[in-house]
Amino acid sequence: MAVLDEDGTIVAVNRAWERFAEENGGTARSCGVGANYLTVCGEAYRMRAQEAPAVIEGIREVMAGKRPEFSLEYPCHSPTQQRWFILRVTCFDTEGTQCTMITHANITERRQAEQTLRESEERYRRIVETTLEGVWVLNREFRTTYVNSQMAMMLGYSEEEMSGLTLLEFVFDEDAAWIKYNRPAGRVEISCESLSDERVRLIVRDTGVGIAPEDIPSLFTPFERLGAIHTGIEGTGLGLALSQQLATAMGGTLHAESVLGQGSACVIELPCMAPP
Predict the structure, then answer these.
(1) CA–CA dist 49, 234 (Å, integer)
(2) Are strands 84-94 and 2-4 parallel, antiparallel or unpaired?
(3) Rounded to an integer, what distance in angstroms lies between the CA atom of residue 43 and that of residue 38?
(4) According to the model, what pLDDT value does residue 113 have?
(5) Dihedral over Cα of 144, 174, 207, 266: its sign
(6) Alpha-carbon distances, residue 26 vs 6, 20, 35, 51 (angstroms)
(7) pLDDT of 166-207, one tens digit each?
(8) How, if at all, do strands 84-94 and 136-138 pair?
(9) Rounded mean pLDDT for each run of 10 residues along the chain, 276 residues in total
């Protein structure tokens, strides 16, 4: 820590400041009491310290009362290690005299942790973007925050088209089975509940004609339409089969429940995950 007078001259320093100067090539004459800190910053700029002009301007603005404080993070690498520091500038009055306090704090550990996190996120993103499995991330409002190209392709959209859309905008498609096979003036209810911090359950329930218990396993057989082919309603019989495969690929499950004459429900359980 160093204290400057109204002209930027250093009037007091602590031992940590002296040690910081010694470790970084400074001397008591150039960085200690009596030296002008603004001049020191100007000399640092001539020695290729690119942050120096911003530091000088920030200090002058704090001294002039244009801003309450100023801070700047900067590299200060040594021959043996990479280091980062943060400079903070604040102003205070003592016995009617305005003084400016300068501090430098080592933030190398934090910057290294941030760099490690960025590299980890980048590796994770590369894996997600190149995997053959679909990845679809929704927030608590079921709005799409991320989708990889594989998932978008599976659903017949582009990544840009899916970005920001809610799950309901995909569920309430006019070709959805729970709408096509529902009764007139029927309902479709969607609910979601958290089973734990690591798992969530989504239920889509209709008020359609229902399915006999012995026919439920056939719902997940590709191209099986359980006699609906004779109703005149178009379809392929692939929807639930593909949905179950997608749920399984994402570490989840999908099963159907139904009561003949009352309606059916599709129950999906999926693991929670942090966004990439």
Answers:
(1) 71
(2) unpaired
(3) 9
(4) 93
(5) negative
(6) 23, 8, 11, 17
(7) 776 665 454 456 566 677 778 878 888 888 878 889 888 888
(8) unpaired
(9) 89 88 74 87 69 89 92 85 92 84 92 90 81 80 84 83 78 55 78 84 86 82 58 55 80 89 88 70
Could you give the CA distance from residue 244 to residue 132 in angstroms, rounded to a whole number?
17
Segment (H or E) for 121 = helix 108-130
User: CB within 8 A of 255, min separation 6: which ones?
Assistant: 266, 267
pTM equals 0.49
3-state secondary structure of 24: coil
The CA distance from 244 to 68, in Å, is 59
The tokens for 153 are 């392709």
Q: Is the separation of the CB atoms in 12 and 3 below 8 Å?
A: yes
- Degrees to nearest 5, angle at CA 177 with 175 and 183: 105
